[in-house]
Specification:
The complex is a heterodimer of chains A (381) and B (444). Chain A is of the alpha/beta class and 381 residues long. Chain A folds into three domains: 133 residues, Rossmann fold (3-Layer(aba) Sandwich); 107 residues, Nitrogenase molybdenum iron protein domain (Rossmann fold, 3-Layer(aba) Sandwich); 102 residues, 3-Layer(aba) Sandwich (Rossmann fold). In chain A, α2 links the parallel β2 and β3. Chain B folds into three domains: 164 residues, Rossmann fold; 129 residues, 3-Layer(aba) Sandwich (Rossmann fold); 94 residues, Rossmann fold (3-Layer(aba) Sandwich). Chain B is built from 17 helices and 14 strands. In chain B, strands 1-12-11-10-13-14 form a six-stranded mixed sheet, sandwiched between helices. Chain B has a four-stranded parallel sheet with strand order 3-2-4-5, sandwiched between helices. The chains are: A alpha/beta (381), B alpha/beta (444). Chains A and B meet through β1, α1, α2, β3 and α3 of A and α2, β3, α4 and α5 of B.
């Protein structure tokens, strides 16, 4: 049934996406909410929380302030904290109650910037979309603001990585592996948005020859950089043994021609339901499907439970909007590769291969998350 | 951490000496930080105490995420379902219909009907004027053999009445209905964990020949329902008092609030009140008190090298505990609390005289993101509570939440023993405090 689940989890929300994307950039992120968003984010959606400081806060919104429209408290609290902590920028976004109250985050951001002198932007989260929506808007806002000036291309081939957050890649080395693979493929990494890169690194993103989009939350920024600097982008994650070479070639080709490429969605069409099904974020799952196709010779279908641009899906892929749709698709698949929290709706006679996704199961299965980057897949399909 | 020009941390606004502190709220409100100490229970943990129940949360995605993963981490997803709210639902008049149909769909799919459903609505439902009564009426008509309990995840309203925690502890007992009473039976209400059998509270009840019921000991829904027969409702946590009051009104039973205390006179008064309600003579607490004092003295000998830091998650009366320890020779240097309950006022006033330099430190202030976490080589810290352990960076800490089930003179003695243990044994702070719901099963 629509918007209903008996037993499966739910993906991290847009507010967590904002915080995750901006976590390492030296800014201050304020979620206009009572209390739950920050606790949920810092417990389940942010593996860096304990060991790495970042200025992620909630506004501690109260009923009275929401009803009376006391935006002044929000503004003055942010300005006061910013004066103490000196962030590089400020991002302010909202949870469901501010949505209902019609809070104008753009106006609030303008006021905060005027008072603090710190670049500030309002983001339009509601706590009702997935992390991809929030992370996408946050990255686009940062790049739009801090990556504005024309810069010459680097002398050597180079690339940015767009859309990397622990929600999709955890903190177990996958993003490092992508960096290493890019370097080995002949691309210097200008910036990784947004893990282990600084705001200054991102400010130089326009010098890259090509952008590698590793999650759909990086797509809007890729288009922005393309419009601003003419940088082409390629969507894919170098998983498995053979797909990394395909992806590397796509990057070289894109850098040469300036054309976009979506090798993650360039897959053999299967008219049959009974193929392996991979549930998850579109670019990662599409890349994995392509890797299975190349490495094991089996075409796969992506089951996408998240927001995704149509271009990221192959013709055989399906959107699964809810638990019933997932169960229906699983029942027809030859096998299922998905987060363990989907397992209860997978029929017992359908092989289920566990692939933890932090944005779905949080920290529950982090320890068993495999690094699939540029190496043989761990399953026999 | 932010540094003053003299190189010291600038904690202005986030920390104040108790002699200069205002009561009950020493710090201005502002942006809030969330420290990674996850031991305190949330409404999901508390709701799971009702045997044979199933939880259904109707909330926005962001709100659902936290409660679902709470259940997942405690390996209880088979007792948790959800209905998400999207933007259109708020404006197209479908809120109630979606919840009724969603809950019905969930119940039809469950392999076994639960005896009770805890149905949670959130802030946006209440802001949008959602008719919870109509939802419950329809669901009760559709499933007459299931008890539906209205529950709330509404932190936006936390300063407008009962907090979500207080509400949850109250609603946990909502299915208890008026029925014939059973003499010499009492309920211990509103606790997350059993109270120590060795405590004077439990011993007095048992020695008086009374039966003591506690939801933490109920294995079945019928055992739980039998709590309605008890003639006395006992609470001792401030967050449980509203539950006791509600039961007193609804069931016509006597509610006895015997607040968890570290003041020996108050402990004695509480036990005398309990004895009166049980119809027995007041106990002579002299021996128990002496035992507590000896335990404190022994703990001080063992842990004397440490400064003591206490936080509000360990006990609802961190200031009272600080006073007790200071009066018995411990070097208490800091209490982490963002606000104090009225019950703490006498201890607060006394500490201002006895230990005027003791620091009160906020836990949610924006500066606390960067505070502490250092290694105290020159001034080792022993923390009581997970947040104190986190902020101080110590591995020597007493790992309890909400009083830890310790009560009375016995509770003081047991706490002293835990202080000794913390002084002599280190814990893996980072691992221990990040587990949600201290005492609950965890998949981590």
């Amino acid at each position: 049934m629509k918007q209903t689940a008996r037993i499966i989890s739910i993906h991290a929300a847009d507010t967590s996406g904002v915080c995750s994307m901006l976590y390492e950039l030296g800014g201050m992120v304020v979620v206009h909410d009572a209390s739950g968003c920050n606790s949920t984010y810092s417990t389940h959606d942010e593996p860096r929380w304990y060991r790495r400081d970042s200025m992620i806060y909630i506004s501690a919104l109260t009923e009275a302030d929401a009803i009376l429209g006391n935006d002044e408290k929000l503004i003055s609290d942010i300005v006061s904290a910013a004066n103490d902590l000196a962030p590089r920028f400020i991002a302010v976004c909202g949870a469901p109650v501010p949505l209902l109250a019609g809070t104008d985050f753009d106006a609030i951001a303008t006021e905060i910037e005027a008072r603090s002198g710190i670049p500030t932007f309002g983001l339009h989260t509601s706590g009702m979309n997935s992390y991809l929506v929030g992370a996408s808007e946050a990255l686009e806002a940062v790049v739009g603001r801090f990556c504005a000036n024309p810069v010459p291309r680097t002398a050597e081939p180079s690339a940015n990585i767009l859309g990397a957050t622990p929600l999709d890649f955890s903190i177990l080395g996958a993003v490092d592996s992508i960096r290493e693979w890019l370097e080995a493929a002949g691309f210097r990494v200008v910036s990784c948005m947004a893990m282990d890169s600084t705001l200054d690194d991102i400010g130089r993103a326009g010098s890259a020859h090509v952008n590698l989009v590793v999650s759909s939350c990086g797509l809007a920024t890729a288009e922005l950089l393309r419009a601003r600097f003419g940088t082409p982008w390629v969507a894919g994650v170098p998983v498995g043994e053979k797909f990394p070479a395909v992806l590397a070639e796509s990057l070289r080709e894109a850098a040469k021609t300036g054309e976009r490429a979506l090798p993650c969605a360039d897959r053999a069409f299967s008219g049959s339901d009974t193929v392996p099904a991979i549930a998850g974020e579109a670019i990662f799952s599409g890349s994995l499907a392509k890797a299975v196709e190349l490495d094991a010779g089996r075409p796969c279908r992506v089951l996408c439970p998240l927001e995704a641009d149509d271009r990221l899906l192959a013709p055989c892929d399906l959107r699964i909007a809810d638990e019933d749709a997932a169960a229906y698709a699983f029942a027809r698949a030859a096998c299922v590769i998905a987060d363990p929290m989907y397992a209860p709706v997978c029929p017992a006679d359908t092989p289920f291969l566990r692939l933890p996704h932090e944005a779905f199961s949080g920290r529950c299965y982090r320890k068993e998350t495999p690094n699939l980057i540029n190496r043989p897949l761990p399953w026999r399909l | 951490m932010l540094k003053r020009l003299n190189g010291e941390d600038d904690m202005t606004g986030a920390e104040v000496a108790i002699r200069d502190a205002e009561f009950p709220v020493p710090f201005a409100s502002g942006l809030e930080y969330n420290a990674p100490a996850r031991g305190p229970w949330n409404i999901v943990h508390t709701g799971m105490l009702m045997p044979e129940s199933h939880q259904v949360f109707a909330c926005a995605q962001g709100c659902l995420r936290g409660v679902i993963l709470t259940a997942a981490e405690m390996v209880a997803m088979d007792r948790m379902s959800w209905i998400s709210v999207d933007r259109n639902d708020l404006f197209d008049g479908s809120l109630e219909r979606n919840i009724v149909e969603g809950t019905a769909d969930i119940l039809r799919k469950l392999p076994r009907k639960p005896r009770a459903v805890l149905l949670f609505l959130s802030c946006v439902h209440l802001f949008a004027g959602c008719d919870f009564d109509a939802i419950l009426a329809e669901l009760r008509a559709m499933f007459p053999d299931v008890v539906f309990v209205d529950c709330y995840m509404n932190p936006t309203m936390r300063k407008s009445g009962l907090t979500p925690d207080q509400l949850m502890r109250r609603q946990l007992y909502a299915p208890l209905a008026p029925c014939p009473s059973e003499p010499k039976t009492a309920n211990l209400i509103g606790n997350d964990r059993p109270t120590d059998e060795s405590s004077e509270l439990v011993r007095l009840v048992r020695e008086a020949g009374w039966k003591l019921r506690d939801v933490t000991a109920c294995g079945t829904f019928d055992e739980y329902l039998a709590m309605a027969k008890s003639v006395l409702e006992i609470t001792y946590l401030p967050t449980a008092a509203a539950a006791g009051d509600a039961l007193e009104r609804r069931l016509g039973r006597k509610h006895l609030y015997l607040p968890l205390s570290y003041d020996f006179d108050e402990i004695a008064r509480n036990l005398a009140k309990l004895a009166g309600a049980l119809g027995i003579e007041s106990p002579d607490g002299t021996g128990a008190k002496q035992h507590a004092v000896r335990a404190l003295e022994h703990a001080r000998e063992v842990a004397g090298e440490f400064s003591i830091e206490i936080d509000y998650t360990a006990t609802p009366r961190p200031v009272g505990l600080a006073l007790l320890l200071a009066e018995h020779g411990f070097r208490v240097t800091r209490v982490y609390t963002d606000a104090m309950i009225e019950e703490e006022r006498p201890a607060f006033e006394r500490l201002r005289t006895l230990a005027p330099d003791l620091l009160l430190t906020a836990t949610v202030h924006a500066k606390m993101r960067f505070a502490g976490k250092g290694v105290h080589e020159h001034d080792p810290v022993l923390a009581i509570g997970q947040k104190a352990a986190y902020f101080s960076g110590t591995r020597h800490f007493v790992n309890i939440v909400a009083g830890g089930g310790m009560y009375g003179f016995d509770g003081v003695a047991r706490l002293a023993a835990l202080i000794e243990d913390a002084a002599t044994h280190e814990k893996d702070t980072e691992t221990v405090i990040q587990h949600k719901g201290l005492g609950c099963r965890s998949c981590l």
